[in-house]
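Model: You mentioned two targets. I'll fold them one after the other.
Researcher: Yes, keep them separate.
Model: Target one:
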Amino acid sequence: MKTPHLIHISLGSNVGNRLSFLQNSINEIYKTIGDIVSLSRVYQTPAWGFTSNDFYNACIEVSTFLSTTQVLHILMDIENSLGRNRTGGKGYEARTIDLDIIFSSEGCIVTKELIVPHPAMQHRKFVLEPLAEITPDIIHPELKQTVQQLVENTSDDSIVSLVTDTLKNPKEVYTLARFQYLTIEGNIGAGKTSLSEIIAKEFNAKLILERFADNPFLPKFYEDMERYAFPLEMSFLADRYQRLQDDIAQFDLFKDFVISDYDVFKSMIFAKVTLQSEELILYKKVFDLMYKNLTKPGLYVYLYQNTERLLENIKKRGRDYEQKISAEYLDKINKEYMQFIKTQSQVKTLVLDVSERDFIADRSDYIWILEQINTCSL
């Protein structure tokens, strides 16, 4: 999975319902660009460089998989959708919303359409004050000063005052923590680990990931399934059980809930496909003893992808030992998962078809998943 990077954005409005324009722009940024990591309070500032109504200003820190240039284009679309009218004349003018990129963790950028860091930020209190509230220690890569130092040294003597009205982080509408323990499951290559990682980071969850890479039997299994199926499934079962038993029992005061990219029952699902009948009988006895003692998830989400898409994903991520996985094997695994879900009475389940979605490349697909999860009752 790609690593997200951080972008700091300044927001301003001095036309109409200024607070509403700021909030609506933040909502759209969350839906189309990425997670709102930090959100400043609202500051009232005089119009800078021209005579007009006072501005409401704020700054946000956004985590995104998009490039800074891609973010710029989306911000311009958001401005247009919220009634920003660029007359093309020289000088500054009143506006419903103004969205400027101030910093990017991609570094310094100089193109015809974009300069980062913003070339005039050090001269503008309406940018520096809210930015210093959320990231006072970030260092300007060219001026070699922190944002807090830039505030103290700026030549701008404008009077900046705090507004009592506040902005809301859009992700607050998603109440995933009520499930306490959320499981994201799926076939090989379905994207369960990537989705779990994103949700854990965005919603402050304790993340439990399967340690498939540490299993010495896995590469051997894909070379000779019949010979190595039993030791593989037994080793996976033992590790999955131990990890979930330890991590779920150990409450983390600094996390809001637990999310895992697997459920121990997947051991039974894979065992039914890979083991001989005699082996399966023995395996099930051991499995039943372990499974009954484990905490069950508050919600079990199954990411369904069709076999063609799974094979594409497996090829794309390039693990050598996975390249010989057959479509027939994936079909069998998927059928066993669906059978488990149909007969499941102990756990609340949700099946999401993501065959035509890419929740990393397209933020709207990720938001769709969140909305589907959020509508589930306990």
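Model: Target two:
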Amino acid sequence: MKTSHAIRQALALLLVTAAALTQAQAQALSADEQQLVAHVRRHTPDALRLLERSVLINSGTLNPAGVREVGALFGAEFEALGFKTRWVDMPADMKRAGHLVAERVGEHGQRVLLIGHLDTVFEKDSTVPPWQSDGSKVRGQGVSDMKGGDVIVLLALRALNDIGALQGRTVRAVFTGDEERVGSPAEVARAALVAAARQSDVALAFEGAAQDEQGQPTGTVGRRASGSWHLQVTARTGHSAGVFGRDGFGALYEAARILNAFQEQLREPELTFNAATIVGGTSAAWDDGQSQGTAFGKSNVIPRDAIVRGDLRYLTAEQGARARERMQAIVEQSLPGTRARISFHESYPPMAPTPGNMRLLARYSQASDDAGLGTVAAFPPGQRGAGDVQFVAPFVDSLDGLGAGGGGAHTPDEYLDIASIQRSAIRAALLIYRLTR
């Protein structure tokens, strides 16, 4: 495939930008680290071409063939850097492609786990153009979420390999094939990732980079858990003339009492408990697979059924346990003639902003500052959605948001800032180098 004029312009811009590292900045780096920076700068155009090749392969989560094809493309890149690779298949009934695992094992330094994902939210029938570039930005399917992060991993590792810095070091990479729609059960879908974490000391995840309100680059030291709650209310039914009396309050008043008590009694920083849907009446049903419900009722009949589905997000396991306990207590305070029960499901565990995560961010920030790329702040945990790093955070110090700069993730306007590939790869290469010494 011929490289477009816009891409040629972008490559030229990258070469000009690379020359901007001043002598004063270089003095903050060791001789090996200066070599790393030079290698990243020299091979960034190759990374951009690899990104284009990967993005032109549709790899929506429900397109297993496409996910495997992207996995094979990146797997070959890992193998060229001396990594052993394997493909971890998922059970057929899970309807997911599986995951790419790559590793080099040694005896020196901290063991580092690198996390990416191969799938995107754009399925085979998506009308979003896969790749469009104006020379400074790329728009397309999964460019920043997160094939850009994947190529940043490979660009940083290429620099490390080229100067011999991976010899005797343990570096593992897990690129999952279903991050956007995790297969069920999650325990099976994330077994390979958790196993890699248990053999590692730190985890670095390459979801898209973000800036704070002042425009400062950030790293993610915490992400809130993502889960759900299901509320089922049943009540005595009868003629509406008996409501509040012999026949009680009905299912809808009880559901309203519970929801109002939630918002009055549970609100605290970093905790949300959105009530998303409610279906109620003389009879009601809900289909989780279709995310829709049906109800029947008349105004002169006390409603028997109410079904509520909601979302629950919290920053620490303790906060989650406290919220569930309080929600359960509220549910048990039933109005006359009603009975309610609530259940909870956690899809992603919390990634708490632990001291270990903060120390890892400090080392990343120092590497960035030493390379003349500025300090890196902590991104507010409550402002990021869920991600794969949360499955490993209970086991190792973790840092996320090390990928490409951009925006519009999951929308037709998703884009990647081309210059961010080089910046993020320099930071990553320096951090991995220092961790593995």
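Researcher: Noted. Anything on target two?
Model: Residues 5-223+351-435 form a domain with the Aminopeptidase fold (CATH 3.40.630.10).
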